[in-house]
């Protein structure tokens, strides 16, 4: 045999390993150590026979390392293949609008699935897969069509979209076919939905919290500035509540073109307490108008309805004693949450981010992450008692899924408090509920 022939080296080396090494590897991984010892002895034997040909011996050692690593990779691959044979696949559907493509919300969904599959703690015998579809924001027909495609594909749950109008149409499909629909969006419909799991806080609870803040701060005159008609619908309870009858409430609709005019009017009327509901993409413009009109001293108090006030640049507001209050869902100071956020940073692909520059996650991606976790916990609870039947349905047949009702019942029966206590590192938003944050005289602090 010619030792100088590269194509013969692997056969040559393997031929010198002890017979029966394959079976011994399968029964006892420690025999890898025996393989290393035996092969080194063989190579030393070659060294004595080859004299001072150091390059030849180096090639033998290098080749041994490559072959040995490949043997280990083959074994690991075999283990993974065997493991996958005993793990069944379950497909999740997700619907995002075109403007959400590669967004932090989509990345949070993918990361949540990746984390569950990687750790195998929640679903050791199930592999989650996903089918993502993108739809126009104002086209409910197209969104419904995409959802029906996912149903035909065999999804066993649908996540999203966050748009309120599209979400209602997707829910009607899921409700008719008994498919769990997990959402993280504002829903003003107070009617209970049997097949919907929505982690977004109920607007009635938020309005009650706003009222408590106004009462605690003893506001007697307030302006409610909203951008969309939907924003007025959200806050209508504030105007109609008995407590609001005792104070002067000024309603104004404003967008970036009219921020200055509306704020100037509030300033001239000496209305210094303002509730602000504006689009996130326009927040920086609203904050700039406050600075330009010099409405940022201690006399003014702004209550923002966004959960993401910490993700905006408030550096210019820290030194003029202005008061800014908002609620947040994610406590970034929690040890378990910080661990999740660090892992998210390592996962996020180049050019796309789940966290902002301040390493803070927005409420929507956090709620999406939690939705996947809650679904997985519910599925695990169901699988402890019986197997989930695959979904074989379509929008045309309109036959409900046999396993859907059981799955949604197990998810609805979860005690989230106890889950959070046992899996503190698995959840983001549900851990902190509503936590008021205030940016007063000395900067940002938590108001307990």
TrEMBL record:
Main location: membrane
Keywords of this entry: Membrane, Receptor, Transmembrane, Transmembrane helix
Entry GO terms, CC: membrane
Subcellular location: Membrane
Superkingdom of origin organism: Eukaryota
InterPro entries named among the record's database cross-references: ANF_lig-bd_rcpt, Peripla_BP_I
Domain Receptor ligand binding region: 106-420
Name of the protein in its database record: Glutamate receptor, ionotropic kainate
Organism: Apis cerana cerana (Oriental honeybee)
Taxonomic classification: Eukaryota, Metazoa, Ecdysozoa, Arthropoda, Hexapoda
């Amino acid at each position: 045999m010619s030792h100088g022939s590269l194509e013969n080296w692997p056969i040559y080396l393997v031929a010198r390993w002890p017979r029966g090494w394959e079976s011994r590897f399968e029964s006892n991984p420690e025999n890898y150590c025996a393989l290393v010892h035996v092969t080194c002895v063989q190579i030393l034997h070659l060294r004595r026979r080859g004299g001072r040909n150091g390059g030849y011996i180096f090639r033998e050692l290098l080749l041994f390392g490559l072959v040995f690593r490949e043997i280990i990779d083959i074994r690991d691959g075999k283990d993974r293949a065997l493991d996958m044979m005993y793990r069944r696949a379950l497909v999740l559907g997700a619907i995002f609008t075109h403007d959400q493509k590669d967004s932090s919300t989509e990345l949070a969904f993918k990361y949540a699935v990746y984390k569950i599959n990687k750790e195998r703690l929640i679903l050791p015998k199930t592999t989650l897969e996903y089918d993502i579809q993108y739809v126009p924001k104002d086209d409910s027909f197209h969104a419904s069509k995409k959802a029906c495609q996912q149903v035909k594909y065999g999804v066993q749950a649908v996540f999203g979209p966050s748009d309120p109008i599209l979400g209602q149409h997707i829910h009607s499909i899921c409700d008719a076919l008994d498919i769990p629909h997990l959402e993280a969006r504002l829903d003003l419909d107070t009617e209970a939905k049997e097949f919907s799991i929505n982690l977004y806080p109920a607007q009635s609870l938020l309005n009650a919290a706003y009222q408590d803040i106004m009462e605690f701060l003893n506001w007697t005159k307030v302006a409610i500035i909203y951008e969309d008609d939907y924003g007025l619908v959200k806050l209508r309870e504030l105007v109609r509540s008995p407590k609001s009858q005792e104070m002067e409430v000024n309603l104004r609709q404003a967008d970036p073109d009219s921020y200055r005019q509306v704020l100037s009017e509030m300033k001239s009327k000496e209305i210094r307490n303002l509730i602000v509901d504006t689009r996130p993409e326009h927040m920086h413009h609203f904050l700039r108008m406050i600075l330009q009109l010099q409405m940022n001293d201690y006399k003014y108090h702004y209550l923002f309805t966004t959960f993401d006030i910490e993700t905006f640049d408030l550096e210019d507001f820290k030194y003029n004693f202005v008061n800014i209050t908002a609620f947040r869902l994610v406590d970034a100071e929690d040890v378990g949450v910080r661990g999740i956020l660090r892992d998210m940073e390592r996962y996020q692909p180049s050019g796309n981010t789940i966290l902002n520059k301040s390493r803070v996650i927005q409420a929507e991606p956090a709620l999406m992450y939690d939705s996947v976790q809650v679904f997985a916990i519910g599925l695990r609870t169901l699988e402890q008692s019986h197997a989930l039947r695959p979904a074989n349905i379509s929008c045309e047949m309109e036959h409900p899924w046999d396993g859907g009702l059981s799955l949604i019942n197990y998810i609805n029966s979860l005690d989230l408090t106890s889950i959070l206590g046992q899996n503190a590192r698995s959840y983001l938003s549900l851990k902190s509920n509503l936590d008021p944050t205030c940016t007063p005289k000395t900067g940002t602090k938590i108001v307990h």
